[in-house]
Design the sequence.
């Protein structure tokens, strides 16, 4: 399966000729157990609401998000999944380059290339346990770039200390840092949203994991 995102069960069914229930899909690192029973009950209780369009401003969701993380509602943008925002941000941030520690989620590079940015990879090294080297990243900064940092990283699982990310962003205000915390709920690490966040630091969160 060559999809960058993975999880394309319809494609797997077509390729294998087997029903979806017979397939163990390892192409995307999501919860294989499905939604909990209480969530099924909640969905059933809201079926009558399907006759209405959803709130385009995501008002209640935004309020819940701001209450959880203690951030202003004006700092929150809800997207149709993180992927929508990953493809949007390189188009609107007006940068020339994208610096991406690799291996990591392939859509960072794909979205940057689609937006016309020059993509520069920074290899994660085995001798460092595949942890991002923030010193090496900072040495490559010129102020005309976006830096994508996935923490914990997909696929290595390594996290970057929140304090170090804040310090890096503060020292380099002309660089846009996109910190993808899609897998943060699987760890006990502090979210970078929990404290002071520099204006040049954008944090992505996900419900799908």
Sequence:
């Amino acid at each position: 399966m060559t999809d960058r995102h993975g999880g394309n069960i319809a494609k797997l069914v077509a390729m294998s000729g087997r029903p979806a229930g017979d397939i163990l899909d390892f192409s995307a690192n999501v919860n294989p157990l499905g939604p909990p029973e209480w969530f099924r009950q909640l969905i059933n209780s809201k079926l009558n609401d399907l006759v209405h369009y959803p709130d385009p401003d995501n008002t209640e969701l935004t309020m819940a998000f701001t209450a959880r993380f203690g951030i202003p509602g004006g700092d929150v943008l809800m997207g149709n999944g993180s992927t929508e925002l990953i493809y949007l941000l390189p188009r609107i941030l007006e940068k020339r380059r994208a610096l991406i520690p690799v291996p990591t989620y392939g859509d960072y590079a794909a979205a940057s290339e689609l937006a016309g940015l020059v993509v520069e990879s920074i290899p994660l090294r085995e001798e460092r346990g595949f942890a991002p080297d923030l010193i090496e990243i900072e040495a490559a900064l010129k102020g005309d770039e976006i830096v994508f940092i996935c923490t914990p990283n997909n696929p290595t699982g390594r996290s970057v200390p929140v304090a170090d990310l804040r310090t890096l962003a503060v020292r380099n205000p002309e660089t846009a840092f996109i910190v993808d915390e899609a897998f943060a709920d699987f760890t006990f690490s502090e979210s970078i949203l929990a404290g002071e966040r520099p204006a040049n630091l954008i944090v992505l969160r996900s419900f799908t994991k």
About this structure: The radius of gyration is 19 Å. The mean pLDDT is 90. The first helix runs from residue 9 to 16. The first strand starts at residue 97 and ends at 102.
